[in-house]
Amino acid sequence: MLEDKKRWNKKYLEEKLPEEPSQIVKDFYNIAKKGKALDIACGTGRNSIFLQEKGFEVDAVDISDVAINKLKEKNPNINAIVADLDNYQIPENRYELIININFLNRNLIPKIKDGLKKDGVIIFETFVLNEESKTKDFYLRENELLRLFIDFYVVFYQEKDVIRNDGRKGRKAYLVAVKKC
Fold first, then answer.
1. Which residue has the higher pLDDT, 2 or 9?
2. How far does Cα 158 stand from its chain's mean position?
3. Geometric angle at alpha carbon 93, from 140 and 157, rounded to 5°
4. Strands 153-163 and 79-82
5. Is the dihedral of CA 18, 104, 151, 157 positive or negative?
6. pLDDT (0 to 100) of residue 9
């Protein structure tokens, strides 16, 4: 945990990161009922702030205390939590909306599913393994995200090539799904 925290703190101190909310969040947040939302690996809170401004009560979680402090400075109305997502317990049946943007921890998938209320919405965007990928553990395989949420009603799914913030080529998967039972 300490090494992860140091690495992410360094990233949030040194790198210029996007400030606009993710397009998939902007496009699909409104299919969720207003209520509680969870932003997993929220970083400095670009998506959390957007959701809070749209009327959600947001819990935002990240391992980086640097990122969480920046988020708290921008918007004190968000419940910003410093936590290692390897050990974080998502409360069951709590959220109308959970977003997971540019982060992958496969062990969280069952917790995400349990954390959503019936008719709750998951918005997920993260990288897919390709020839530019550095390590396989943090990248989805083709169609893996779709398979992980096959028990949900899938509203939108796409995989496409992208240019990453650092200029490298990448591939991303995008999923929006509703928990029906």
1. 2
2. 16
3. 30
4. unpaired
5. positive
6. 59
Three-state DSSP at 10 gives helix
User: What is the phi-psi region of residue 55: left when phi exceeds 0, alpha when psi lies from -120 to 50, beta otherwise?
Assistant: left
Q: Which of 46, 49, 144 is nearest to 101 (CA)?
A: 46
Buried b (16+ CB within 10 A) or exposed e, 110-132: ebbbebbbeebbbbbbbbbbeee
pLDDT at 149: 96
CA distance 11 to 127: 18
Query: For 157, which DSSP code?
Result: E
128-152 confidence digits (pLDDT tens): 886 655 667 778 888 999 999 999 9
Distance between CA 30 and CA 37 in Å, rounded?
A: 12
Q: Is residue 112 pLDDT above 80, yes or no?
A: yes
**Residue 28 half-sphere exposure, CB side, CA atoms within 13 Å?**
23
| Cβ-based neighbour number of residue 56 at 10 Å | 24
Q: Considering the chain, what is the average pLDDT of its residues?
A: 90
128, 173 contact by CB (below 8 A): yes
- Domains for the chain: give ranges and CATH numbers: 2-178 (3.40.50.150)
Please report where in the chains the tokens 């049946």 appear, as a residue: 93
Describe the crossing of helices 65-74 and 46-53 by its angle, rounded to 10 degrees.
30
Element at 117 (helix H, strand E): strand 116-127
